[in-house]
Amino acid sequence: MEEANAKWYVIHTYSTYESAVKTNLEKMIENNNLQKYIYEIAIPVEKDIVEKNGKRKVVERKKFPAYVFIKMIYTDNLWYMITNTRGVTGFVGPGGKGLPLTVAEIKRMGLEKIDAAEFDIKVGDNVRVISGALETFLGTVEEINMEKQKVRVIVHMFGRQTPVELEFNQIEKINLV
């Protein structure tokens, strides 16, 4: 089997069990030699700015609480093994059978890396934040890190210019006229 045939699926878990499910699935993959069928397990998180007692703090929050994403080649045997993993309540799909995510859903959730050729934003470009805690904020790209798939954007926040680090899929280019 090869990774090109693998698709992303969504697994529903008990609330707050996401990390435990990921660990249990990784152990199951290793113990049963399933690296040829299961390629990646993800729990998407986003950074959020919280102000408490006058101090700003950046915290990580799960984008989709009680869900774990898995890139795999779907088989009935794997379905059985995954749904019987501690903390898993089942796959998201009709009748509890896994339904693969579409390409648009994968990009919107930030599960796949964006190809450098697809990313047409450059330093100095004006952008709008389209997801996360700073959604709808406008800013200017200050730095691009292709390896980490992140950009540093200067946004106007709290009455001053503030640099924030965002993922590629959290911004869109805008043209100011």
State the main characteristics:
single chain, 177 residues, alpha+beta, Alpha-Beta Plaits, SH3 type barrels, 2 domains, five-stranded antiparallel β-sheet, 39% strand, globular
Structure in words:
The chain is of the alpha+beta class and 177 residues long. The protein folds into two domains: 3-109, NusG, N-terminal domain (Alpha-Beta Plaits), CATH 3.30.70; 126-173, SH3 type barrels (Roll). 16% of the residues lie in helices and 39% in strands. It is built from three helices and eleven strands. It has helices at 18-31, 76-83, 103-109, and strands spanning 7-13, 38-42, 45-52, 55-62, 67-72, 88-91, 126-129, 138-145, 150-157, 160-167, 171-173. The strands form three sheets. A five-stranded antiparallel beta sheet has the order 10-9-8-7-11, with no helix packed on it. A four-stranded antiparallel beta sheet has the order 2-5-1-6, covered by helices on one side. A hairpin with an 8-residue loop joins β7 and β8. The longest helix has 14 residues, at 18-31. The protein starts with 6 loop residues before the first strand and ends with a strand.
